[in-house]
Structure formats: structure tokens, C-alpha cells
Design a protein that fits this description.
This protein has 8 helices and 21 strands. With 489 residues, the chain is an alpha+beta fold. 16% of the residues lie in helices and 46% in strands. The protein has helices at 2-13, 69-73, 80-89, 137-145, 231-239, 245-259, 325-336, 385-389, and strands at 46-51, 58-64, 97-112, 119-134, 155-156, 162-177, 182-199, 203-210, 216-229, 261-273, 278-292, 298-307, 339-342, 346-349, 353-362, 396-407, 410-423, 427-435, 442-451, 454-461, 474-486. It has a 21-stranded antiparallel β-sheet that branches. It has one domain (2-486).
Length: 489
């Protein structure tokens, strides 16, 4: 059991840190070069940028839409068993989720083409991971109460749904200013899977009814599957008493750099100017797949069986030493509902993410600032629309952002209202209020600091939850360092 707990923990941590899947604070915060990673078609007001290796984009995220740690372990005078029954077993539903996602940038950079100044190229490598585990409500009730007092109730196996992975991603993108109103972007990705596990689209049930030949009859109908790649190798290293940390590190590096299962994908994005101060943006991320062909170990439980337990004929069976009636029962169940393993290859689709926003700029920018719309002090060539207009064109801005992501039980959405303000060329702030399945009180704050060529940003979600992390449904923190050369330098 400890091995599976370690596996789930490792997948939740990704490659070692956690990073939010919904990046509403980073989205369209285009002073930060990492905004290209959530919209390849965002504005690009730089000549070039270089992320400081390993610290250009790191953070953490974890969320639960059901209970919190405080719900179970608070010293509130309520018996622990009562808390588990009322708040977890019966208080949560099959769509309640425990989730985490992670990302760390190994290296990241970008530059504007000298021959095609309307084009901005970006490239890099990052590791990411995520886990999504849904609450198996019916099975939790069956485990907590048993079946004796639940006659004729079908315990639904479709409540079982979980997925997790760790993957290394190599990427190259192109952002092009098509005209004064439209920016488009595309990014190609190559995935190298470290490990993955998933179990979804399960079906079946367990039910207990009145028996004909015995008191009770139990019926099991199951179509369950757990697919894994790289997991068995990972566990084998952990179980090997002679293995060292260097062995695990070597395995992780080998799987990260094309030694595992490979896949391809793409990101697409745009920014469109409706009028002088209003912009529409959108992006679709991780439209791709990974083909798993090695390190495979899949588990299935398929079949149907009904039994009324052991039928004993008295007094003959009491003195029959040649028949193992218990083993006969087990063999019969295993024959009708076999638990099997296989090494079949499989394709896993990436967790597709969708972003869309509307933004309205307002407030005087001020002559001579980097955000000046006429770029009075720009050293760019006259008539070059890309370098003249792809600048910081706002003093204040407000708008709305929609995020959606595909999960094992269907799409999940989050809606954000935001406000941004720049204090000269040194500091920019962004505040957000987000509604999602984890919280209705998620207030976030992002800070971007530009000290000469050095760029530092820090973004934190659900600030109200930091007062008591144990009672929070969601927590996220991100930061990074870059070196930037701006278009007007």
C-alpha cells in the first residue's frame, strides 16, 4: 500500500513542484514572457528574452472540491468516525475531486527575427505532471457500511476515475503580428513520458439481494481497467534494496529525454483588437497525444458472477476431507470475473485546455513611457508596425477570462474577473476573482517587477485561504526570473 501512496504523491508533485493548470493570473499578463506559454498569440513587446534556468517558472498548486484537512482533523469536539461518515463518505459526491498539477521550466527563451521583425520565436523545455482522483462515493459507502444493510442497492463502479502522469516537453513556437489588429501564434510540442496511470470509463456494479438457496445472493458485474506505463519500472526501483538515488535519477533522466513513450502536440492562440482599447484573446493548449509502447503494465477486471455463498449439505460435507469448498468458491468467482494483466500499448490524449478573454484598457499612458502608443523614443525602424505597436499599451485594464480543461469526468470550467494596473515601467499588478469548483472566494494577486533587464514575477491564488491552509480548498503560488530586452531598448 505504501508503494501506491508514494506513486500518487509523486505524480501529484510532477517533476518536483506544482503549478496551476488554470493560470488566470498569468494569462494575457504579457509583460511576463511566460504568458506566451498560455497563449502563443499574446502580444510580444520584446526583442528577446531568456529565462534563468530552473527558476524562470516554478510554483505549486493543490485543490480539493470536497473536504479539507481541517474538516477531518479540527479539534471541534466531533468524533473522528462521525466526521468521516458525515463529511467524507456521505458528504462528498462522485464528481468531487482531489487534484494537483505541476510544472518546472528547465530552460526557456525567445527572440525576434531580424529578417522578419513581425515574427517572434520562442523555445524551451519543461517538465510537468498532474493527478486527478475522483471520490468513489458508492465504494466508500460499501467499505464503510458493508452490504448487509444495503439490500438491493447497486454500488456503481463508474465512480472509479483517476489519472496521473509526469512528462517532459520540448517546444518551439512562432508568434506573428498579421496586421495592426491581429496577432496569431502556434507552438509545436514533443512529449517524452516518464510515467502515466489512468483508470476511467469504468462500469459495472455490486448488489446484494435475497437469495433462493441461501439467505443472500451477491452479484458482481465489472468492466474495470487500469492502464500504466513506466509505473512498474518505477516501483521496481523503489523495491530494489540495492538501488540508489543515482539509479532513480538515471531512470528519470532516461525517460525524460526520449527514453520513454513519445508523443506530439500543438498550442494555438490569438489576440484581436476590436477597437482602440478593447481586445479579444483565445488559446487552445495541448492538442495532442502520447503513444505508450514500453514499460507497460495494464490491469483488467471483466465479467459477471452471482453467488449465494457456500452451499453445505449436512451432515455429509462436514466429514468430506477431499473437497476444499472455500477454494472452489474462489476459483468459480475468478473464472467468471478474471483479474488479468497485459502489456497492450495505448494512446493517451493530452488534457486539452481552453482560454478566452475580453479586455478593456483605460487610463492615460503618458508620453515617452514604454507603453506610449506612438513609441516616441523607440529606436525601431520607421514604418515597422510590429515593433511600433507590440508594446505595453495600457495603464489600467479590466476584463473577464474563461478557462476550461478536459478531465476524466468531462470538462471543468473557471470564470475570472480581473483588473490590471501599471506603475510606470517598473511595476505592474493584476488582481483576480475566480469562480470554479474549488472555491467561490478565490481572490488572486500577481506582481511583475522590471528592474532594468531583470524581470521578476510572483503570482498567488486564493489569498483568503492562506490564513488557514488546512481549511483551504485551493492553494497556488508561482514565481520566476527572466532577462528581457524590450523593443524600445
Amino acid at each position: 500500500m505504501k508503494r501506491w501512496q508514494l506513486l500518487i504523491l509523486t505524480s501529484s508533485l510532477g517533476i518536483g513542484v506544482l503549478y496551476a493548470q488554470n493560470k488566470q493570473l498569468l494569462y494575457d499578463f504579457y509583460e511576463i514572457p511566460q504568458s506566451l506559454m498560455v497563449n502563443p498569440g499574446v502580444k510580444t513587446p520584446y526583442k528577446w528574452h531568456a529565462g534563468i534556468p530552473l527558476v524562470s517558472g516554478i510554483g505549486f498548486q493543490a485543490g480539493t472540491s470536497g473536504i479539507t484537512v481541517n474538516d477531518l482533523f479540527a479539534n471541534d469536539g466531533v468524533d473522528f468516525t462521525t466526521k468521516v461518515r458525515d463529511r467524507a463518505v456521505y458528504g462528498m459526491g462522485p464528481r468531487d475531486e482531489f487534484s494537483g498539477s505541476g510544472q518546472i521550466e528547465v530552460f526557456y527563451g525567445g527572440f525576434r527575427s531580424a529578417n522578419r521583425p513581425d515574427d517572434y520565436y520562442s523555445f524551451g523545455m519543461y517538465g510537468e505532471g498532474y493527478s486527478s482522483i475522483f471520490w468513489p462515493k458508492d465504494l466508500a459507502i460499501l467499505g464503510f457500511e458493508g452490504n448487509a444493510n444495503n439490500l438491493n442497492r447497486r454500488f456503481d463502479f463508474s465512480h472509479l476515475a483517476l489519472q496521473g502522469e509526469a512528462v517532459n516537453v520540448f517546444h518551439f513556437g512562432v508568434n506573428r503580428k498579421m496586421n495592426d489588429k491581429l496577432d496569431l501564434g502556434i507552438r509545436a510540442k514533443l512529449y517524452s513520458s516518464v510515467f502515466e496511470f489512468r483508470s476511467k470509463r469504468n462500469s459495472g456494479y455490486f448488489v446484494t439481494t435475497q437469495g433462493d438457496n441461501n439467505i443472500l445472493e451477491n452479484t458482481l458485474v465489472a468492466e474495470l481497467e487500469l492502464q500504466t506505463s513506466g509505473v512498474k519500472e518505477f516501483i521496481d526501483i523503489l523495491d530494489d534494496t540495492g538501488a540508489t538515488g543515482a539509479d532513480l535519477q538515471q531512470w528519470l533522466l532516461g525517460r525524460s529525454f526520449f527514453g520513454g513513450n513519445l508523443g506530439i502536440g500543438a498550442d494555438f492562440g490569438f489576440t484581436y483588437q476590436l477597437n482602440q482599447n478593447t481586445f479579444l484573446t483565445g488559446s487552445i493548449l495541448d492538442l495532442g497525444f502520447i503513444y505508450h509502447t514500453n514499460g507497460l503494465e495494464n490491469y483488467t477486471l471483466n465479467g459477471a458472477v452471482s453467488n449465494e455463498g457456500i452451499e453445505i449439505l449436512l451432515p455429509e460435507d462436514l466429514f468430506d476431507t477431499t473437497t476444499d469448498i472455500w477454494q472452489e468458491l474462489v476459483d468459480e468467482i475468478e473464472r467468471l470475473v478474471p483479474f488479468e494483466t497485459n502489456q497492450n500499448s495505448f494512446i493517451s490524449l493530452r488534457p486539452i485546455k481552453l482560454n478566452a478573454s475580453v479586455r478593456h484598457n483605460f487610463g492615460s499612458i503618458g508620453k515617452g513611457a514604454r507603453g506610449s502608443s506612438n513609441f516616441d523614443h523607440c529606436s525601431c525602424k520607421p514604418g515597422n508596425s510590429a515593433l511600433r505597436t507590440s508594446n505595453l499599451d495600457y495603464r489600467s485594464a479590466m476584463g473577464a477570462h474563461l478557462f476550461m480543461i478536459h478531465r476524466p469526468k468531462g470538462p471543468q470550467a473557471a470564470l475570472t474577473a480581473f483588473f490590471q494596473h501599471r506603475f510606470g515601467n517598473l511595476l505592474a499588478l493584476k488582481t483576480t476573482y475566480t469562480l470554479d469548483k474549488y472555491s467561490f472566494t478565490n481572490i488572486g494577486l500577481g506582481l511583475n517587477l522590471q528592474a532594468g533587464p531583470v524581470n521578476f514575477y510572483v503570482l498567488a491564488d486564493n489569498l483568503l485561504g492562506y490564513g488557514n491552509i488546512a481549511d483551504s480548498h485551493y492553494a497556488s503560488f508561482q514565481f520566476g526570473f527572466n532577462i528581457i530586452s524590450w523593443n524600445d531598448n
